[in-house]
């Protein structure tokens, strides 16, 4: 088609020739500007010229979006690039890349710490224990949802929430110090938050797309640490002369799962979540072993002692969980702190469930056991070169000492149980 002066009426009459995939109309006023009409009916402005002896064709835009004067200005602009020795295709590509980078940079500086916190949790949760994962969710929660035990009371925002809603670039040492001084009335939560925040900022600094936004040591501020204070070590444990009172009240608990859970927690010294997550498939009554997944999700095997086997065999098998609960949405017993607190109050004791873990380690001091053995039963990481590389206690040996521990505790608690003879005595015989 010969060149024509581009006007709206003339261009609206341009049709794709029958049997052709596309038809072109060229502007008589601006060299290189054309209109391409396809067989599908779409019409768009194009620019066509030559660069270094080769044809160059670029799409300017749809005729519905571009006016004729704007298309002509764009064609002149592209021609000037050619006259200056520039390939307009490369120039346009570079401009788009620069624009994309600028938008990404703007987004990078606008992203909130809470958004990155969510990404961090999603990436790391597979390597975390259940309790550690819940700490991250609880401390950053928005709040306002009904509590599980009391629907009339709503949850409060997590201690980290007011800090994490800030843009990530504003998580500085100063902002952390100001936040810490406002949360000084919650020292335990503040100390935990600072530890989690410090690890989060280190992870953020390792992400290429977020590099340079935060100081990775911002949470190590001495002012923030001073505001949190130092923790007071809790050393509450069951004494030897308190075992009878504790066992008597715990065995009175009407829910057999709760009663067995608490006794097994004391007799194994394991973490409360580790006991709560035991499944029937983890218990082997033939070889008297229990497989327990620790906080790092490492599966360890410990002996199933005689009294614990007696407790577990008396529990209902309502689902996959050993310590099941018909009232829990998960089907398993959630940490029964209320029942334990009531039993301890009746017995005149002040103990948390975690204190039972500490109690086993302390009580075993009476028995003069091999160093490291109780730590292994409790799931502690081996300490020292000998424990790490030279000592590999077989299950039969662990069982001998674990049975001895259990028999001694039950004896001191004056609990009637036909315990098997104590083979560990032969170890100390001349």
Biggest beta sheet summary: 4 strands, antiparallel
Helix percent band: 40-55%
Order of the strands making up the biggest sheet: 1-2-3-4
Q: How many E strands?
A: 7
The helix count comes to: 19
- Provide mean pLDDT, rounded: 87
- N-to-C CA distance: 115 Å
Rg over C-alpha atoms, rounded to the nearest angstrom = 36 Å
What is the H/E order? Answer: HEEEEHHHHHHHHHHHEEEHHHHHHH
Structural class computed from helices and strand pairing:
alpha+beta
Shape: elongated
Classify the beta-strand content into a percent band.
5-15%
Report the uncertain regions. 421-430
Can you describe this structure?
The protein is an alpha+beta fold and 430 residues long. Helix content is 46%, strand content 10%. The protein has 19 helices and 7 strands. It has helices at residues 8-12, 68-83, 88-110, 113-124, 130-139, 161-164, 173-182, 187-205, 222-228, 243-250, 256-268, 272-276, 306-313, 337-347, 353-363, 373-378, 384-390, 395-412, 425-428; strands at residues 22-26, 33-38, 43-51, 54-62, 283-284, 289-293, 299-303. The strands form 2 sheets. Strands 1-2-3-4 form a 4-stranded antiparallel beta sheet, with helices on one face. It has a 3-stranded antiparallel beta sheet with strand order 5-6-7. A hairpin with a 4-residue loop joins strand 5 and strand 6 (289-293). Helix 7 packs parallel to helix 9 (222-228) and helix 11 crosses helix 15. The N and C termini lie far apart (115 Å). Mean pLDDT is 87; it is low at 421-430.
């Amino acid at each position: 088609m010969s060149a024509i002066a581009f006007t709206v009426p003339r261009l609206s009459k341009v049709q794709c020739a029958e049997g052709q995939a596309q038809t072109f109309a060229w502007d008589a006023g601006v060299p290189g500007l054309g209109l391409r009409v396809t067989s599908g009916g779409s019409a768009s402005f194009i620019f066509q010229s030559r660069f270094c002896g080769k044809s160059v064709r670029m799409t300017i835009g749809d005729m519905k979006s571009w006016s004729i004067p704007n298309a002509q200005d764009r064609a002149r602009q592209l021609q000037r690039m050619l006259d200056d020795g520039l390939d307009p295709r490369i120039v346009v590509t570079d401009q788009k890349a620069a624009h994309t980078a600028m938008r990404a940079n703007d987004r990078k500086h606008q992203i909130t710490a809470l958004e990155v916190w969510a990404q961090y949790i999603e990436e790391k949760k597979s390597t975390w224990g259940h309790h550690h994962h819940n700490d991250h969710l609880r401390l950053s929660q928005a709040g306002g949802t009904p509590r599980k035990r009391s629907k009339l009371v709503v949850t409060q925002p997590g201690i980290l929430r007011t800090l994490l809603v800030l843009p990530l670039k504003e998580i500085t040492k100063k902002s952390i110090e100001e936040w810490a001084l406002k949360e000084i009335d919650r020292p335990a939560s503040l100390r935990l938050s600072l530890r989690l925040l410090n690890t989060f900022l280190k992870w953020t600094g390792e992400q290429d797309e977020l590099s340079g936004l935060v100081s990775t040591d911002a949470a190590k501020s001495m002012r923030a640490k001073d505001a949190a204070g130092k923790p007071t070590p809790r050393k509450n444990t069951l004494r030897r002369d308190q075992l009878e009172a504790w066992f008597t009240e715990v065995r009175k608990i009407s829910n057999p799962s709760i009663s067995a859970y608490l006794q097994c927690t004391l007799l194994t010294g394991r973490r409360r979540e580790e006991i709560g997550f035991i499944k029937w498939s983890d218990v082997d009554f033939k070889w008297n072993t229990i497989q327990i997944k620790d906080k790092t999700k490492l599966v360890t095997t410990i002996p199933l002692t005689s009294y614990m086997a007696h407790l577990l065999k008396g529990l209902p098998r309502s689902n996959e969980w050993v310590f099941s609960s018909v009232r829990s949405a998960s089907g398993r017993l959630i940490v029964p702190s209320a029942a334990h607190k009531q039993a301890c109050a009746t017995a005149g004791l002040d103990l948390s469930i975690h204190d039972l873990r500490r109690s086993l380690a302390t009580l075993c001091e009476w028995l003069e056991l091999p160093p490291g053995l109780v730590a292994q039963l409790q799931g502690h990481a081996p300490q020292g070169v000998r424990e790490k590389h030279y000592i590999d206690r077989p299950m039969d040996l662990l069982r001998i000492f674990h049975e001895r521990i259990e028999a001694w505790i039950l004896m001191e608690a004056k609990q009637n149980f036909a315990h098997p003879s104590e083979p560990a005595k032969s170890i100390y015989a001349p």
